[in-house]
Amino acid sequence: MAAVYSTFLQRAYDQLVEDVALQQVPAVFVLDRAGLVGGDGPTHHGAFDIAYLRNIPEFVLMAPAHKKDLEHSLEFALESEAPSAIRYPKDFVLEINQSPAFSLGRSEIIRQGKDIAVLALGSLLKETLAVWDDLAREGINPLLVNPRFIKPLDEPLLLELSKEFHSLLILEEGVLTGGFGEGILEFYRSKGLLKNLNIQRMGLPCEFITFGKRSTLLKHCGLDSENIFNRIKKIHFEAKSYGRVSSR
User: Fold this and answer.
1) Which of 3.40.640.10, 3.30.160.20, 1.10.10.10, 3.40.50.920 would CATH assign to domain 2-241?
2) The dihedral formed by the CA atoms of 220, 168, 136 and 149, expressed in degrees to the nearest 10
3) Among 6, 11, 5, 12, which residue's Cα sits nearest to residue 175?
4) pLDDT at 196 over 80
């Protein structure tokens, strides 16, 4: 097992491909400071790891969203025969009592709901839960998913969501180009389902992000709880106005 800043791992990219994935070495990379790190600035933001790891064959990529998730992902990775990476932010840990069985590629349903499905990857589950009561007061009750795995995708769940929801919102603290949401778009496209779905994504812009407190930078990038609340509200009422609501 190797613990390393997310942004530093990209300097060893060729080794990941040639010495780990190609040789099928069951190495575990624990990526600290994934996403926005605050005052250390552009050289330390872990913005690109999802995009550059997702396309390497053999790799399993996880984004635990809470304390139990992190514990389970470490145990899972150490027992796995595949190379794996676990990404987590420079932030306070979220604690959730529930934590169903942890298995390859399977997500966790955090809140049951209707009308819109929200897939909040890793750190952004915390931001989304922070506005859950505010959403309820607006009469909005989305389904909330903790994806856990970036690769492989939870394909059975994605197929189920495509049958029950018209609108999906995907949240990730990584660049949108080549990111988690792009993987979901690719999956739905391969199944011929994109034309039936309104899929929206929120993530980091493909640019070098400046210095600042983590909370300030999340707001700057539109990934703070207020922006997430406003996007969910907008999607919900747009879908309602067009009569595109879930069958739940």
Assistant:
1) 3.40.50.920
2) -80
3) 6
4) yes
